[in-house]
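Hello, quick one for you while I still have it in my head. No rush at all, and the record is pasted right below.
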Amino acid sequence: MSKPSVSLIDVSTYLPGEPIGAEYYEQFVESDDLRDHLMFRAPKFRHHVAPEEGSIDMIERAAHGLIERHGHDAIEGADVLITHTQVPDMAFYGQGGGIAHRLGMRPSWVLDLNNGGCAAFVLALNVARKLLAAGEGRTALIAIAQNAAGQFFDQPTIRRKAQSAVPGDGAAVALVTLSDQSPILDVECRTYGEYAGEMTLSYDPPRKWWQAGPGEGSIGFTESKITKVLARGNRQVPEVAFAVCDRIGMAPKDIDLLVTNQPNRVFLRNWRDALELPPERHRDTFEECGNLFGAGIPINLDRAISDGQAKAGDVVLMAAFAHAGDFAGAAAVRWGGRG
């Protein structure tokens, strides 16, 4: 007996506030050894979460599109909730319970995925399809919030650094069901444990992240680390993408649409070159939204669907890597349209 098909039915998104231009950072700029590095060339715009806007607020707002198109029951009745929040509102526990409550859900499964990072959407798709195919429910909701730009990277002493002009905030919610409408064709997830821990927080003076102290935390970038991350990202994303394409019997250059995370322009160019795809078949919102971390794939997918770039029957390939290269994943979906 064949397993039932699991489909990515729809996705809806939310961007907080008005676009913030690159000039916002110019007023804070100071000497930074990495300012001219290609990793930190700023996008034209990005969005910042409001000071009192929690990640659960962002998810609730992102869910509005799904509720409008599919009704409250489709959301409230979901059996599985999978979440990823870049900066949890509270230490010690994830956002899953709070999101379930806010959306009126009583799911059997609530899973918070920290390790997925910028590839969290692919990881969540994989978990959702496995659970639903195994009989653990008929519907799953994936909720992702990227809220680091307006909080972590906008700290008064951190926004002076080159790294702070690149991230942007946003949220996305996706609906996955037992259906053959928009089947998930294949998923590849790979963990590179040898690189775990290479993404670090830096404080001046040094301290553990949870200890009180005068210095604000930033990502501990060095020239050496950046070189390694560039090499890993350039290799890992095409590797997982090629693995999925091989199993679904398509050459990467024949994929209708590529959707990736979007750390910077260099990765975006290198990935589509590796897959031999023209820019018009690789969706990104980098100039409007910056680096959206884990929310990048679903936000770009939503944009592509909404403006007709992703058409019914198209094979959409999603691929990303996380942190300093400790995780990467790719997923292919035959998009069936919003119905």
The chain has ten helices and 14 strands.
